[in-house]
């Protein structure tokens, strides 16, 4: 799958509570049929600063389209901008030639694979850093919260 990065700007939104989100429309070359979109949402909250939630959804929902949710470490997302990372349910690798970042998301059946413009992922990370700087999230409570969320999956 290839994304439709059509809109001007980075598309990153910051809510009053500090939640940072980025929605990327994934183009599937017409396989989903008319009027259907597949969207990859990146979501980060300052009260859980180590984790980034990834949500793949179809709009409107359709059982034949890829969907699911994953959690990735914010640092792994950052590493994925310049080197391949991940060995679990989320694998990330840069594509320097196309200035994109590829995501392979494990799910039932075949993994969902898609790319996102590198600049959009970098903008998302920059906005999270404005809320909680990289390295500033290291606390026992943050680590415990992340572990609890990972173990619930």
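^ Assign residues to that structure.
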């Amino acid at each position: 799958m290839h994304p439709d990065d059509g809109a001007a700007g980075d598309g990153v939104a910051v809510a009053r509570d500090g939640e940072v989100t980025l929605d990327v429309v994934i183009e599937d070359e017409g396989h989903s049929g008319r009027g259907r979109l597949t969207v990859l949402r990146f979501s980060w909250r300052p009260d859980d600063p180590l984790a980034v939630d990834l949500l793949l959804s179809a709009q409107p929902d359709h059982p034949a389209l890829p969907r699911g949710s994953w959690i990735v470490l914010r640092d792994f997302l950052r590493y994925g901008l310049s080197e391949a990372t991940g060995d679990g349910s989320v694998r990330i690798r840069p594509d320097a030639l196309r200035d994109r970042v590829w995501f392979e998301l494990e799910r039932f059946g075949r993994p969902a694979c898609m790319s996102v413009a590198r600049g959009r992922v970098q903008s998302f990370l920059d906005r999270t850093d404005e809320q909680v700087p990289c390295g500033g999230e290291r606390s026992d409570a943050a680590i415990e919260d992340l572990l609890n969320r990972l173990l619930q999956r």
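The CA atoms of residues 84 and 93 lie 4 Å apart.
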